[in-house]
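debug: dumping io for the single-chain case to check the tokenizer round-trip. Nothing else runs in this session.
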Amino acid sequence: DTPAWPLQEREEATLMRYYVEHLASLFDVCDQDRHFELIVPQRAAVCPILLNAIFAASARHMSRVGNFDPFVSDRYHQECLKHLIPMLGNTAVIMDENLLAATVILGYLEEIDGQESQGHLLGTHIFLSAQERSTLMGGLRQAAFWVGLRQEIYMAFVNQRTIMPVLEHCNIDRSFEPAHDCIWANRIVVLCADVLRYCFGDGEQSFTTYNKLLDYCHGWNLYKPPSFTPIFHKEADAERVFPETWLLSDATVTGMQHYHLVRILLTAHNPKIPRLGPGQKQALRKMDDDIKADVRVLCGMALSNNKTPPNFVTACMAIALAGERFEQRAEQEALMSVLLKTEFEHGWHTQTAQAHLKEAWGWTDVRNG
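debug: decoded output
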């Protein structure tokens, strides 16, 4: 294939540079080799679908945080889908790692738009399922698989539904053996997928399955490397609603945030909570307190490690799921400020969650809060 470099249009060169400087790191949070920053742009030079996906994502982000024309993104997006969708039935094509990368970049575009109906994301499921047996092969395919799985977790949280790709057959390292921080982060991300399937799937919510998930969660926290320990921590006080938790890498923040997401889900879906009787009210109160504590930690981690937008997205997932449990106005306003910061500074659509919480909290003017 003839490389696209040098690009003929200044605007397209600007979009490519914007992707490398502002967006690639969002995909590479758990990738020490930084495939989306270093490899994907070079592959895009010989893969028009991947190139258009990058242009579409950059243009959309620029339009959401600045005054860039939003129709530019639509044009590249449609061009991309026109060629990608007819290929989804071809087994050889869906093993193409360049197209998998294009698919997860389009998935990001749809996420920041707040397209919770999963337009093309059905395509992501097809690609993810095809990669399941190759997650230990490394390279761009593995990197894109993990991005796609985190996107799938986001959609499952937003829609309170199960995870679509089946993970039993993946060659995923679920051990507690010594490994790089990125592998440790991915281990808890996989547990989050397993827990979502337990909570929202059609299967039986048995004590045995619950205990296995809970044991793994405890084990991960017990055996995780020292690098996951904050270099600074300060509890919330009169001046600060959320605790401060400073960590030194994107992978460790991603890991710890998913650990707290798992705790929220396991606490909310605990089959051991009595349905009736003298202990039920106390158990529900403790459940409520535990969930709110984890939400505070997640928000504190985002604000304390604020150079990485996905940290805010993960916090927003927890806020959307459990924000209505907060009754104090100061806490409600702090949660709303995280949603607004995510929307205006990082271009991520949080208006649905904002409207839902304003109504749940009884804020008088739902439109203006």
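debug: round-trip ok. The chain has a mean pLDDT of 89.
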